[in-house]
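Anyone? Bumping this.
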Amino acid sequence: MIRLALRRDHVPGVRGFAGAVAGPLLAVGIVTALAAVVYADETMTEVVLLFGINAIMVVGFQVFVGNTGLVSFGHVAFMAIGAYAAGIASIPLIDKELFLPDLPGFLADVELGVVPALLVGGTAAALLALVTGVALMRLNGAAASIATLGLLVITVNVLSQASSITKGPRSLFGVPDHANFFWVFTWLAVAVLISATFKWSRAGLRARANRDDSIAAESAGIPSLAARLLPFVLSAFLTGIGGGLYAMLLTAFSPASFAIPLVVIVLTMAIVGGINSITGALAGAAVVTVVNELLRRVENGVDVFGLHLKTATGMSAAVLGIALILMLRWRPEGLLSAFELQLETRADRSQQAAQSPVVEEAG
Amino acid sequence: MTDVVQHVVDALSVGSTYALLALGLTLVFSVMRLINFAYGMMLVWAGYAAIVLLDAGVPFLLMVPLCVAFATVLSMVIGRLAFRPFIGAPAITLLITSFAVLLVIQYVAIVVFGERPRILRLPSVFADVVEIAGIRVPVLELITIGTAAVMVAIFYAILNRTAFGAQIRAAAEQPDVTRLMGVKPDRVLMVVFAISGAIAGVVGLLWFAKVGAITPRSDLDPTISAFIALVLGGLGSTRGALIGGLALGALEVGMAATLPDGALGYQPAIVFAAVIAILILRPGGLGGSVAEPAR
């Protein structure tokens, strides 16, 4: 009999690994089912799609932050690169001549479908991560965070200057609106599958060993740079795909679309759900989306007992801020801490009692 | 030749504001490992206070100390309410907390002052340009450099010549031993936030005197510049903050003077790339650091 469990580690062996990967996928299934119910309401379609894309972004973010313990403010840069790369790759040729006449030859002649365009977006972001990561991943703690913020500044600066490719600070139009329910939630499942496989792989374990005690890990033959670089690149790839979908949802966007408010949303979702858990990333994305949506309605004005309440715009950010502080104060490890939803059989559980776990995740 | 002197003055003026900002940040960092994302917002609030006071008819010379006092108190209140509960938490938690604090005090600024830019009107002296030995120097730049020099002198006097300073340095190096010696960590923290706030008040006035207009989102530029200066110099060292600030000023002015027109738009990117390159060569920063030793 198969049953659900919340665990920090997974049962040893191939079956345990399969259960550990299947658990978060089941969580995606639950989230997708809930989203589908809400999606039936036509006024909510954009909110649901945005939720799915944010969830991809948070899952991607979690791959890096959860496994390495470094906080990145630069993931929005990967999102921006993914959005521009996927966007430019998928704009129809006719529109391209019209909107982007100065595009270099090889870019001017391509018009890709959804999947190849998103893969281009993810790959572009992963390449940026690989090139910059060789440098950034040498830094520790707060210096690393600030340097990743620098990556965001550089990326937005370059995107708004390279006018022939990106139309500079002006909006890029004409990206086809491929971001429908099917593609968003399919990619969410793919993102979770990749990130769970990585988490329980040897490379994931090495990254977390480096996170928990880098000196001990190095003395055991795990170089810090390599241990951090792989999750950084993988996380950028997933975030780039999220960015590509974001571009296909907005269809028109500018470098200013990728700024601090997006950092706030992704960071809050990840912290609320629990930065060390993939299941937590999904839970955090869901909770923050619901809260945000309620706040947005208050911002637009609500009627309570005949009183019309209305607040200044930006309140959702302030409430998220207070929620973050309270969360960090009283439950800094987030809703799910390092726990993951997992599938296991009864036999696994009794076997578990007999021997100690092999793969363990520190809370 | 005069060109070069001109650029040096520019670099000193820009660099000294960065150095002051980095000092304000590094002091708090050395005591509680907090990198304060909300620091730029303190400048914005000091700027708004100046506008409100000037509009109310308060004379300029009275407005300055009032603004600095306001920023000092604000910094202490935020330090007490938002940051004190997190003493001893991991640096990352503190960083994110300060990020959250930024969101909240930014929202309050939006509610109170609105999104539209407000103009800071200063006496016309500030817009004047004086000529010294053939070099034309804006008065504001001279005031900035002079103020920064005085502030740094006061800062060092407090840190090295007073009991408070000794307590702060002790708490930064050996928090536990310092407590055993009967120094209350709370009081050290409040003094540190007060100094950091006073610096933010002064720099806020200088900064927005130069920029001219304030919006609730004007905090990003000073915060990011201060961060770069901080990391460039080396986290947690006062000497590093000064070196980092001045180096960043020199880098920015030097770039603006030497880059070809086509590359000028990429200046922020080039500056940041240079900073990251320096960090890779010297992970402890230009000034060396106690907090994050090179490895």
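Late reply, but here is one note on the structure posted above: Chain A has a mean pLDDT of 84.
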